[in-house]
Amino acid sequence: MRAVVTGGAGFLGSHLCERLLQAEHEVVCVDNFLTSGPENIEHLMDDRRFQFRHRDITEGLDEPGEVDAVFHMASPASPADYLKLPLETLRVGSAGTWHALDLAAAKGARFLLASTSESYGDPLVHPQPESYWGHVNPVGPRSVYDEAKRFGEALTTAYRRSRGVDAKIVRIFNTFGPRMRPDDGRAIPTFIRQALSGEPITVTGDGKQTRSLCYVDDLVDGLMRMIGSSHGGPVNLGNPHEITMLELAQWISKLTESPSEIVLVPRPQDDPEKRRPSITLARELLDWNPMTPVEHGLRETVRDFRRRIDFDDLGTTSRRHPVTVVNGTAHR
Ligand code: NAD
After folding, report:
1. Among 109, 144, 290, 326, which has the highest number of CB atoms less than 10 A from its own CB?
2. Looking at residue 316, what is its pLDDT?
3. Is 132 a catalytic residue?
4. Nearest to 51, CA basis, from 72, 35, 67
5. Which of 82, 120, 132, 145 is catalytic?
6. Which atom of ligand 1 is least distant from the CA of 117?
7. Ligand 1 center to residue 55 CA distance, Å?
8. What range does the domain containing 324 cover?
9. Which residues pair with 31 in a beta bridge?
């Protein structure tokens, strides 16, 4: 298979590129580093089956030669990123998805949209099955992401119905693992960064809101199963094991043997109260189950943070090995 991965330099995209290469596929990774950096794909650059295109997909997406699959992963994904980049998020979810679908249609390739549990908004149904239409505030701050993804789902479905594209939708629930950015604002990297640098660990609200956390290897396995299946979805991918944010903070504090205290800070607007996927469909259609215990995933993530990042006593962080890419080649 020759696969195009948009957003392939991001957290999930880079793990997906790695998995595709391990399975002997060819990979074209397209990214503009809007919310990532070349260090995520530096180790793949010498593989002759890996090609990198530094490109903004909202401006178009052409790729010469055969393409068998398009994985559309490009989009700011953490609340901190999409709140800072509202128009870029809407553009990549609309024009970017359009271009990625056009590429799949032109090449007769399979297409997979990385949608999100945010499509359910602040859900009134718990756990969330794929049949639930969601509870989204269309003019709230998070709408730039939620509605972009909902539009992407509608567009993907329209290409499937009217253009015959073998297009699939997965709704990804909170996923974590190595290569997350320590400053991306999501709970796990924030708590680990704070714990390792001795800053207070900041839990929002009363800490009783829940999330379900899936390790990245399991998630990528789900993406591979979905692209190989005959199903269009949407299919939820996530770990149904639910924990409160306070429990998560305590767990990370213990794992890192951190001296940091846990403090409660105000909760952001429209922050969902509960998140837990129903994965009955993924089990039935894809024979998929998250296999990695959360504790193992947290240990791997902490190890990666310790390896990559200098934590000084003042709580500021810096990368150990900054990397730049020029003409598709990585330089230190
Ligand atoms: P990420 O920010 O690490 O990766 C996104 C990548 O897309 C980055 O490399 C970024 O530079 C690239 N990108 C953004 N706009 C682009 C553009 N216009 N042109 C080219 N590249 C562009 O985020 P992630 O966590 O890896 O998420 C990947 C995908 O999975 C996203 O679509 C996200 O919505 C979805 N998702 C992720 C999670 C999660 O828990 N990580 C949950 C639900 C959905």
Report:
1. 290
2. 44
3. no
4. 67
5. 145
6. 43
7. 14
8. 187-208+241-273+292-331
9. 54
Q: What residue owns the CA closest to ligand 1's atom 44?
A: 116
Q: Provide the whole-model pTM.
A: 0.93
Give residue 322's pLDDT. Answer: 45
Residue 127 and residue 16 share a domain: yes
For residue 51, the one-letter residue type is Q
Tell me: pLDDT of 317 over 60. Answer: no
- Cα 22 to averaged position of ligand 1 atoms, centre (Å): 21
Site residues for ligand 1, CB cut-off 6 Å: 6-7, 9-13, 30-36, 56-58, 73-77, 92, 96, 114, 116, 172, 174-175
Confidence bin at 23 (pLDDT 50/70/90): very high
pLDDT in tens, 149-162: 999 999 999 999 99
Q: 181 lies in a domain? A: no
Residue 286: inside a domain: no
pLDDT digits (tens, 9 = 90+) for 60-89: 999 999 999 999 999 999 999 999 999 999
Query: Residue 312's pLDDT is what?
Result: 57
